Task: inverse folding
């Protein structure tokens, strides 16, 4: 079996991408953020206080003939950016792009933090990390990918995220039409549940490629690219007027500055992020100061290869044993 669904930017700077997912019988369609950096599938629901819902679609288990309460189970999650949610759990039929799982744990939110309330076009998250990270207790639940595995033609899912455009997520197959050349694979360590792997090095603009292994996580739910301070300072040294602003919490620069590209390595392969992806956004609608899409990971304790990097490639998340991740040009 396979599935294929759209990855739609939720705003004009690609802060996050959502994918249509159907839950229950008859199907209720929700727009979920497919997130390889977590492993909970949670949704705005009829159990979410109306004061915390602002335009989101909700899942109403009472309206689904196939919903079953997972008695006595609860969940609570805190994300890297400080946002969070918690609630109870139902089992129900869930499908993404034609791929159906009969009894998926759907975590119904009873509380969401303000940054979720404010994202009107995001109805929840579908975690695609390793199921060890799932927060449901007393028994943890499987991700959609882990539930779908037995029926998949191939134990993979792929991400084709795009800059200011709709891309796609595919399950169970690697679409030869979505990439060029070969896929460069590298080893993934499952601990502690992220798609953790190394970059083989980097280059700033037309500068020499620096061969140095950088370990981090490929996280479709993180907007930007977070790398060690040494790498980031080397990049912004090439940007006129750039500074690391305490006030804005990262590197900013005049929007008129010309930015170099940034290249990262996956084993022998090289992927170049266009300067436009790194000129991420104005700090406010009328400002001439812009915020960078490449920022320091020093406060995070981990390097994060977020959407700014992932959208420069076609990415294969391979659930084989051992797991691996592949990058191809497109
Ligand atoms: N894996 C990521 C996750 O998907 C988001 S949760 C989120 C919060 C607000 C808006 C959209 C998504 C958060 O930022 C980085 C890390 O935690």
Result:
């Amino acid at each position: 079996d396979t599935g294929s669904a759209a990855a739609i930017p939720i705003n004009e700077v690609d802060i996050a991408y959502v994918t249509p997912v159907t839950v229950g019988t008859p199907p209720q369609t929700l727009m979920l953020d497919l997130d390889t950096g977590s492993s909970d599938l949670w949704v705005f629901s009829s159990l979410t206080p109306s004061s915390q819902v602002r335009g989101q679609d909700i899942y109403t288990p009472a309206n689904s003939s196939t919903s079953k309460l997972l008695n006595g189970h609860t969940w609570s999650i805190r994300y890297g950016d400080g946002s969070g949610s918690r609630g109870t759990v139902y089992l129900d039929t869930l499908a993404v792009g034609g791929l159906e799982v009969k009894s998926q744990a759907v975590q119904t939110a009873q509380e969401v933090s303000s940054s979720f309330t404010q994202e009107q076009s995001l109805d929840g998250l579908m975690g695609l990390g390793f199921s060890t990270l799932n927060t449901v207790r007393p028994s943890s639940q499987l991700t959609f990918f882990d539930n779908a595995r037995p029926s998949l033609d191939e134990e993979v899912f792929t991400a084709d995220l795009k800059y200011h455009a709709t891309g796609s997520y595919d399950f169970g197959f690697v679409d030869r039409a979505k990439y060029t050349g070969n896929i460069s694979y590298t080893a993934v360590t499952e601990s502690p549940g992220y798609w953790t792997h190394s970059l083989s090095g980097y280059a700033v603009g037309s500068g020499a490629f620096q061969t140095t292994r950088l370990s981090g996580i490929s996280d479709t739910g993180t907007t930007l690219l977070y790398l060690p301070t040494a790498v980031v300072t080397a990049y912004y040294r090439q940007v006129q007027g750039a500074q690391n602003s305490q006030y804005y919490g990262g590197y900013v620069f005049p929007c008129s500055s010309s930015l170099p590209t940034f290249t990262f390595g996956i084993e022998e392969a090289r992927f170049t992020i266009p300067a436009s992806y790194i000129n991420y956004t104005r700090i406010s609608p009328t400002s001439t100061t812009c915020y960078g899409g490449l920022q320091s990971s020093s406060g995070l304790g981990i390097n994060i290869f977020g959407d700014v990097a992932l959208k420069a490639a076609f990415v294969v998340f391979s659930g084989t044993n051992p797991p691996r991740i592949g990058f191809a040009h497109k």
Summary: Residues 16, 33, 35, 37-38, 79-81, 83, 115-116, 119, 122, 125, 219, 221-222 surround D5V (CB under 6 Å). The chain is about 10% helix and 45% strand.
